[in-house]
Amino acid sequence: MFLPGGLLIFVFLRKDYYCMKPLKEKLLIKDATINKVQFDTEWFFKLDDMAFFLKEDLSEVEFVYLPMLIDGETEIVKCSSFEDIIRGRKEFKE
What are the residue boundaries of the structural domains of the chain, listed by start? Predict the structure, then answer.
């Protein structure tokens, strides 16, 4: 930012002021890079994939261990619902 007289100042924003990537559940369901599984009517997303996709620390997000077919093998992985991820992101931000 420039001030009168040609002085240049730098404005640094705290991390929590950065815009978080907006999430839409329908787009996440279609995204092939995110492993997911559906139980009843609710989708659960592999937490590691979501953290990589969002480039965020999701360690505060509630999760459950669920079986998921990954590369032809069934693995038990940490999964979270869309609502849990949204809630965890907001709580972590505060």
Answer: 23-93
